[in-house]
């Protein structure tokens, strides 16, 4: 079972020349707030009587402890000015997403004495972090109860989720890319060298052999999935139960391989070799796996699989992604576009009023799913690259009404479709994108801070609008 949780190293810091009791009070207030949000904290109360970091000699102790506890990210609230050297040293050692913030300072005492000078210390720490080459996330100096703190903290946890997923990417590749699809070429060596992304290939014959084994044995697992499909009101009468069992067997075979290889996602050559050899199209199998948060993308699109993992992590795995073609513009709405693919969108994302069925691909192969997705706000993204440069395109859209079509689909609208179209034409992107419900462009933009050589490419909102959102 994959661990999707985020363990947060909680490292409050202070400087000795400022009021100790005030620093302790704010440390406790911050910790209480995080615990009220049910954050999985790993603290340093064991380090000293304060449970705070203020001696650079302690940075390595904290580092070793956090390694043992499998900490995924760091939060270093400045309870007064803080100790920038100790913070920066720990950040360098950990090499994890790091959140920098401190609560706003109270007014000076009647004597004129200031008890904390938190904001001043944040300026000092940010400079030293830069000296150490440590990327960090920053929330505007604010009160603990301010919305900007809550919003920024939630965004940071999502960033940490993306970075954790990205640094452990293992993409399964079932067969080669379809011969006609030059657009989905990927450089495995470069992905490994630049980002540590591993591509794990398997021959189509191995997957088909395992699927046939599941089908022939008619296992309890297979029967359970078939019964689950029957309970979901998915009409499969056009293809018949035997073909449905073949599709389910394929799904189980891929899932077994994913578990064995500890894969993050799968890119499959969905046509034409697989249906030619096995007799069914894998689209509905892909939909079922993606619904279980195992993204399976079409046409052996490695970059599309990477995008899907990133987006699923941005939403902290609360809903699955859907992998789509950019296909046609809306016949009546100039800023609307059809997101479509021939049956791989998860059933859990289906619109309530949309019929659901599994059909034939023309007269060729059974296994194509048909339904319309639910309405809502969408984040659309694409990780891609060429000529040695990689970027992450990101933008927000919303669903609109549109003509019915075959397959699984959703019509979406943006503010300026010609701008989007130009982005895709000029590249390095292709016609494949990943969508997820919710607005996560700020997460994707901030996550790029922690992924060297990945350039954030914001459309709507723009980069400046994202920066404003993050600081306000």
Detailed description of the structure:
The protein is of the alpha/beta class and 472 residues long. The chain folds into two domains: 8-145, Rossmann fold, CATH 3.40.50.10940; 170-471, L-fucose Isomerase, Chain A, domain 2. The chain has 15 helices and 18 strands. The two termini are 38 Å apart.
Topology diagram in text:
Layout lengths: L7 E3 L9 H17 L4 E2 L16 H10 L4 E5 L6 H11 L3 E4 L16 H14 L5 E2 L8 H20 L3 E5 L13 H8 L2 E5 L1 H14 L2 H12 L8 H22 L3 E4 L4 H6 L4 H9 L4 E2 L4 H13 L7 E8 L6 E6 L15 E5 L3 E8 L4 E10 L2 E11 L8 E6 L3 H10 L5 E6 L3 H7 L6 E5 L4 H9 L1
Parallel strand pairs: 1-2, 1-3, 3-4, 4-5, 6-7, 6-8, 8-9, 13-16, 15-18
Antiparallel strand pairs: 10-11, 10-17, 11-16, 12-13, 14-15, 14-17, 15-16
Gist of the model:
The protein is an alpha/beta fold. The protein folds into two domains: 8-145, 3-Layer(aba) Sandwich (Rossmann fold); 170-471, L-fucose Isomerase, Chain A, domain 2.
Q: State the CATH topology of the largest domain.
A: L-fucose Isomerase, Chain A, domain 2
Report the CATH architecture of the largest domain.
3-Layer(aba) Sandwich
What summary fits the major beta sheet?
6 strands, antiparallel, barrel
- The backbone outline, from C-alpha atoms, is elongated
What does the average pLDDT come to? Answer: 96
**Proportion in β-strands:** 15-25%
Q: How many DSSP-defined strands?
A: 18
Corresponding CATH superfamily of the largest domain: L-fucose Isomerase, Chain A, domain 2
Rg estimate, integer Å: 25 Å
- Give the terminus-to-terminus CA distance: 38 Å
Share of helical residues: 25-40%
Low-pLDDT windows of residues:
none
Summed up, the domain count is 2
Number of helical segments with 4 or more residues: 15
CATH class of the largest domain: Alpha Beta
């Amino acid at each position: 079972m994959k661990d999707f949780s985020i363990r947060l190293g909680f490292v409050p810091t202070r400087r000795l020349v400022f009021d100790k009791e005030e620093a302790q009070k704010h440390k406790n207030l911050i910790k209480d707030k995080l615990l009220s949000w049910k954050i999985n904290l790993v603290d340093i109360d064991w380090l000293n009587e304060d449970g705070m970091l203020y001696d650079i000699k302690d940075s390595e102790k904290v580092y070793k402890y956090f390694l043992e506890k499998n900490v995924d990210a760091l939060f270093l609230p400045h309870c007064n000015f803080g100790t920038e050297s100790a913070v920066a040293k720990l950040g360098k050692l950990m090499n994890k997403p790091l959140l920098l913030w401190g609560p706003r300072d109270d007014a000076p005492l009647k004597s004129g004495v200031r008890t904390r000078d938190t904001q001043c210390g944040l300026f000092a720490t940010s400079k030293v972090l830069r000296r150490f080459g440590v990327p960090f996330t920053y929330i505007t100096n604010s009160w603990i109860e301010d919305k900007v703190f809550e919003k920024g903290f939630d965004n940071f946890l999502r960033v940490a989720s993306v970075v954790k997923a990205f640094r452990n990417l293992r993409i399964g590749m079932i067969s080669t890319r379809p011969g006609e699809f030059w657009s989905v070429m990927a450089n495995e060596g470069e992905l490994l060298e630049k980002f540590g992304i591993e591509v794990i290939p398997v021959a189509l014959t191995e997957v088909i052999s395992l699927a046939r084994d599941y089908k022939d044995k008619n296992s309890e697992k297979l029967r359970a999935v078939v019964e689950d499909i029957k309970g979901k009101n998915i009409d499969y009468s056009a293809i018949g139960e035997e073909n449905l069992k073949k599709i389910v067997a394929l799904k189980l075979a891929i899932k077994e391989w994913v578990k064995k290889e500890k894969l993050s996602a799968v890119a499959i050559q969905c046509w034409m070799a697989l249906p030619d050899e096995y007799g069914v199209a894998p689209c509905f199998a892909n939909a079922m796996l993606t619904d279980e948060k195992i993204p399976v993308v079409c046409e052996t699109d490695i970059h599309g699989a990477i995008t899907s993992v990133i987006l699923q992590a941005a939403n902290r795995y609360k809903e699955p992604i859907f992998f789509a073609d950019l296909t046609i513009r809306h016949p009546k709405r100039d800023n609307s576009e059809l997101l479509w693919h021939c049956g791989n969108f998860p059933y859990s994302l289906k619109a309530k009023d949309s019929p659901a069925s599994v059909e034939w691909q023309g007269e060729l192969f059974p296994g194509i799913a048909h339904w319309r997705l639910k309405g809502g706000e969408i984040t659309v993204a694409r990780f891609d690259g060429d000529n040695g440069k990689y970027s992450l395109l990101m933008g927000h859209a919303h669903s609109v009404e549109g003509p019915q079509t075959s397959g699984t689909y959703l019509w979406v609208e943006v503010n300026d479709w010609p701008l989007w179209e130009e982005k895709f034409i000029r590249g390095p992107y292709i016609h494949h994108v990943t969508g997820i419900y919710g607005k996560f462009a700020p997460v994707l933009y901030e996550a790029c801070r922690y992924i060297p050589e990945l350039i954030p490419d914001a459309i709507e909102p723009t980069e400046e609008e994202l920066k404003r959102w993050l600081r306000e």
